[in-house]
Each structure stands twice: as C-alpha cells, then as structure tokens.
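Exam review. A common question shows you a sequence with its structure tokens and asks you to describe the fold in words. Practice with the pair below. Do the first one on your own.
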Amino acid sequence: MSDAYEDVPLIDKMRSITEFINRSGFIAMGDTLRKKVLKLSVRQCAVLANIRRYTFLHPEGVPMSVLAERAGMSPSAASHMIDSLTSQGMVERNPSPTDRRAVLVTIAKAFTETSVAIEKAQQKVMDELHGALTEEESHFFDRIIKKLYTAVAERDGLQ
C-alpha cells in the first residue's frame, strides 16, 4: 500500500470504500428506479436502510414503533414517511401476527427484486476488492468485520 494514503483518517478510508460499493449498486439500478431513488430524502433512504437491515434478522418486518425510535422520529412522522414510501411501492405495511395493534413494515415484494440486483452488483465489487487481499488477509478482514458488525448490531438493538 502506498504511503500517500497514510495520513487519510481511517473514517474517511471507510467512507470511501462504502461509497465506492454503494455507487456500484446505484449504477445497477434501471433508469426508472434511479430517478425514483434520486427523489428520496436522505431520511427516507436511511429509513429504507433501517428496514432492510432489521429484516435480515426479523423477516416478518419492523414494528412501526421500533422504526420510529430507530429513525429518531415521532410515531406520527414515521407513519407519514411510511405512507409515502408505500405509495411509491418501496415498502409494505402488514399486521403483526402476534399483536393486532401493531403494524410491521417490510421492503415491498416488487422492490425486493430490484434490491437483490443492487446487492449482487455490490457483492461483485466486494469480491473484486477482496481480490486485493491475500487469503490470510481476507480471513482476518472477515473476522474483523463480523466482530465490528456484532458490536454495532448489539448497540443498535438488532439482536
């Protein structure tokens, strides 16, 4: 690795890698979806990302109350945002099977297919970046990422 990057703060290096991977997903979107995504606010994108992350561990969906708390929004504001994302076909509301008063939010089935295509494009870039590592570095990197993700998930209430 070149010494030219030695003075770049670690957080900026991490952001650069993340942005590079995210760009590949953005490029993988079709024109129609790209236009739709460009109209989303930063907060809407953050809410979609929260729903996606949460539903990896809880496929039944995110309770509206949890989503509002995680997004730092009032329940009413979160509900209005979910209404907007629902009308755009990006998320779905479903009744909770265990609490008839609760509503669970998931990524819409129609948007899931697009989400998978984006993830494949991003995974391809990750695989290419992994190719810059030796086998030993790759295993070490994977262990560190898993450890950091576990710490974030626990602090973020994803367990």
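Now try the second one, then compare your answer with the model answer below.
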Amino acid sequence: MILLEGCRVVVTMDDAGTELENGSVLIDGGVISWIGQGRPPVREQPDVVDGRGLVAIPGLINTHHHLYQTLTRVHAQQGGLFDWLRELYPIWATIDAEWERTAAEVGLAELALSGCSTTTDHHYVFPSGVIGLLEAEIEVAEQLGLRFHPCRGSMDLGQSNGGLPPDRVVEDIDSILAATDAAIQRFHDPAPGSMRRIAVGPCSPFSVSERLMRESTALARRRKVRLHTHIAETLDEESYCRTTFNRRPLELLEDLGFLGPDVWLAHCVHVNDADIRRLAATATAVAWCPTSNMRLGSGFAPAREMIRQPARRGAPGFAHDQGTQGRGGDDCPPGVASGDPRRRGVPRPGRRRLDRGRQARRYRAFCHRRADASRRGGGSGRGPRLLQSGSGAAPLRRGKTRGP
C-alpha cells in the first residue's frame, strides 16, 4: 500500500472536473483506492511518498505505436506513406533482437517520461529466421514497469502477390498463426490488473491477405484477445482497396468480420458518414494518430464527427496515440498522450457523464492554467512536475477493476 501524500494538486478527471489542492492518492494492490485530503481511512500504515510540489494526473494510455521504428527516424522526409514504406522496408528487413531491445528501451522510456503508464505496440515485421523480437520488447516493458499490450502483428502479402512490402519481410500464413497463438499462450494474462496482454494485429489491406485477416479474427476470438490493424490511413490505400477488392477500406473490414467491441483501428483518416455509422454500430474503437498523419501528409481523422455519432451501442471509442507514434510518427518529437476515454478518474455516482470532447478541452484548460501559474512564479521556480501513476497503476474504472 502506497500513499502519495500532499500533492500540490490531484487532477481526478472525474465528471465534475475535481482538482484537489494539497491532495493525496492511495494505491492498494496496484489500484487507486482513495483520493482526498488528509489521511486515508485505512488502518494499515502505508508507505508514504512525499508529493509536495507535484501535480498528480491519471497515467496516460498510448493506443498505437511501432517501437522498432524508433531507430529509423528522419527517413523519407518528403514522401507520403507508400513512398516512406518502400524506402524503409529494406532497412527493417535487417531487424534483430538487439535492434528491437534498443528501440524498445528508447521508445518506452520516452513514453514513461511523458506520463504514459500503459501502452500498446504494433510489431508486424518478422524477417525469416529472426527470433526474440516480441520477447525483447516485452522484457524491456517489464523492466521499466509499464503496463504493456503488444500486438503480434503480421504481413503475408508480398510484392510477388500484389502487396506493397518486399517478399523477404513477409511470412506464410501457417507460420503467422502458429507464432501468434504461441505468443498468446505464453504471454497473455487476462486477469484484472494484468501488466501484460497480447493482441492480434494483421498489418494493413495492402500487406495482408483476406484469408489471413479472417483467420486472425477467428484466432483472436477463440482466444478471447483483442484485434488491431491500420485502416483508411491514406487516399492511396483507399484507391488500392477499390481496385483490388472493389470496396472501400471499412467496407472490406466489415465483410471480413473485423469490426466489433474487441477491435480497435489505427488512423481512420479517410472515412465517410457511412463508415462512421458502421464504427458506432459495431462499437469499434479508433486510435487517432494526428502527428503521424500530419508528418506523412495523410490528412486528419474526423474525430469530432466520430465522437458525436449516435448509435445503439454508443459512439466509437476514440483515443489518441503518443506524439512519437504511428506510421511515420516516430519522426515526431515526444508529446503527451491523452488517456483512453474509457478510463475515468475515481467515479462519483450520480454525476452526469461528460462527452469526450469536453473532457479533452478540460484537460487542455488545466494544462494552460498550471503553465500560467508557473510563469507567474507560483510554487518552485521550475513549475510543477507531472506525475504519472506509479508502476503502471491506472485510475479506477467502474467496479474498481483495471487492465490494458
């Protein structure tokens, strides 16, 4: 049991926008069980951490990342997505476990230093004969104390079969499915509060066959794990899907059964009203990657329209990736990830639930207020530091459970 005591302010992110001056946070068994002022109502004496001068916010959650790309920043500066990929695929074909470990150490440290306590990673390049890639990043995440939800990604559609990647960086379907199933059985921990879970992540419509998409979907649902892929990122991708499949990207995913509450999609830049209704009706989540999309000139996802879309099961879940992530986004400087909208602060029963747009605006306003106070000389000369939830501890959700 750990008590973070006497923080300059505790930002609860509850529906009322509560900020507690001189507040404290009690972490019990890795879960935030109490916030308030003064001493917590517990008999056991907790280990006390001095919070004076700190601003405590919920740990941030990064919903899309390619850690291995950390070591190939600043390539193809003038190219869009397809040109960027064509230049980098040959370099990525040389990846090994040492590369992956180094990239994970840098990328995960950047995330931790920016206040991120939970992250995913979408690793889909597995050159023939190279082992230990997923294992390397999992080990680094454990050493750094981040909650980790990596995707065992895949590509099976090389250039000789009409795909974009060169044949030497793709795998055959049977090997992919066997390796993915083995990763789930070895590493996935479904328990509440788990620090590690595995998702299934076929890469994209231009690097994965329809058969692999269908069989990956079946595997994930048989093993009760989540699904992730890139979709609707660029107009080139949309043109490819129309030419190859005679369908738009989201129509393709719907036909493949790759939508639902167990799915989150990266990008969704080029979606129309029908696509957004499709996402909402299936409760499919979207990871927004604005820095990556701006870096590659891909466009800008219609976030507001997605959040506002009414549906029987609610608007699609919408989250923001970290400033260093996304396709091409590893060229961007570290930023601040926004929290998964499903993760709130300690619940306050009976309060009206805020829409996600208002919550994001409130968080930005908070940052501006604190920055202004620091410039006026309040507190220490350096201004307040931001403190993430310790050791990956996440804010409570309804029912006091948590997980990646």
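Model answer, second protein: The radius of gyration is 21 Å. The mean pLDDT is 82. Full marks require stating both points clearly.
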